[in-house]
Structures are given as C-alpha cells and as structure tokens.
Write a structure and sequence with these properties.
The chain is of the alpha/beta class and 223 residues long. It has 6 helices and 9 strands, in the order βαβαβαβαβαβαβββ. It is 33% helix and 26% strand. Strands 3-2-1-4-5 form a 5-stranded parallel β-sheet, with helices on both faces.
C-alpha cells in the first residue's frame, strides 16, 4: 500500500513509518504541519522545521503545510495536506504515531474517512516501556527537544533515550505519573538516526527557550 507518514520528526512518527515500511508498505511521502501555536492540540512543535533534514536523509519527499494552530480549524489544514498527498503521490492511506490520544486518532480517522483512504496507527495501545526498549534495540537515536511537566527541567533537553533514561523516567512515573513515553505531552523528541536514514544527523547548535517554570524547548540545528 502507498502511504504518507504524518511526520513530526519525533520517535512515534518515525518509528511508525519504519514499522509500515518493514511490513512491505511504501512510504511515498512525509507530511509535516508547521503550527504557529506552540500549544497546538494536534501537532508537535519543537524543532519541527528540522523535518526537512530528516526527509533528506530518508530520501522521501516532504509535504509542508502551515497552520495557525487554532483548535479544530487546524484540522482543515491537515486535511488539505493529506489531500495533496493523495493527489500528488496516489497514497492509499496515512500512518500516524498515535499511542493513546483518542482526540488525535478520532480526528485523523474522520479525515481519512472523508478522503476515502486508510488510517493506520501501528503503535496504538502499545506497552510504553517495551516500546522504548525496542527503540533502543532497533538502533533509534532519539533525543529530548521539549519538556513540559514537573519535575522535569532544562537538564533533560537533548538527553538521549537510553537504558538510563528509561530507568529514571520509570521512577518519575511511579512518583509523579509522568508518562514514560511522553504521551501526555510531558516531553517531545527528535530522531537523529534510525534504520531509515542514510546517515546520522548531528546536533550542531541549539537555542533553548524557557516558557515556564517546568517548560523548556530546544530549537536545534542539525547536519
């Protein structure tokens, strides 16, 4: 099946595309939504423009759609981007990185129904700890580019998801109910390397923006 990946550059969207490719589907294009609203209900925002670099090392065309990020209205912008993928690349479905967000999954399904294409959510309801460990085993290099929950602080930015990270976030889950995979919006990620890349991306600079006492984002430069 020809698929488009709804692509944020974070671990969930990249890994979902990887899983579908492994199953024999063709990822014909990536779709990234650049939102002006940093607190978008639907879309990942930290370092979102660096999906251009990820698309380059994946060798897959990237469709970019901009949105003001207004609740519900932003869905029309998403629908327009998916329709472009259908018209330009003949996609038969989209793949998403949704794990537990019914809000996101239900709205994506509605758009796909309207466009008469499939909506595939290969990570839906996965065990989060097993998922993180599988990312490591399958050679995904993932770093944190945004943190948005107590007691996380700036020191977590650009930390790699490794065994030490998993052990520490498990403790935070027990004590503060921090979702171990960040599904509650506690943190956002960026994939520097994975089996779909032709080469590893390197962080060559970053700008840290503090948005609140427990809210920081890193806008990174990569090459």
């Amino acid at each position: 099946m020809k698929l488009a990946s709804l692509f944020s550059g974070g671990k969930d969207s990249v890994y979902s595309a990887y899983l579908m490719q492994k199953k024999g589907h063709e990822i014909t294009c990536l779709i990234s939504i650049f939102s002006e609203n940093l607190e978008s209900y639907m879309f990942h925002t930290p370092s979102i423009e660096k999906t251009k670099k990820q698309a380059e090392v994946m060798g897959i065309p990237l469709i970019i759609e901009k949105t003001r990020g207004e609740k519900e209205i932003e869905l029309e912008d998403l629908k327009r981007a998916i329709k472009r993928a259908k018209d330009d690349y003949g996609i038969e479905g989209i793949v998403t990185g949704a794990i537990k967000s019914v809000y996101q999954a239900s709205r994506l399904q509605k758009i796909c129904d309207e466009l008469e294409i499939e909506c595939l959510n290969p990570l839906w309801q996965r065990d989060e700890l097993k998922y993180l460990k599988k990312l490591i085993r399958e050679k995904f290099k993932v770093v944190i580019v945004g943190i948005f929950a107590y007691p996380l602080d700036e020191s977590w930015l650009l930390r790699e998801i490794d065994e030490k990270f998993i052990e520490e976030v498990k403790v935070l889950n027990d004590k503060y109910k921090i979702h171990v995979a960040g599904e509650g919006g506690e943190f956002e990620t960026f994939v520097l390397n994975c089996p779909m890349y032709s080469k590893e991306l390197k962080v060559i600079g970053k700008e840290v923006k503090k948005e609140g006492e427990y809210s920081f984002r890193a806008e990174i430069d990569v090459e």
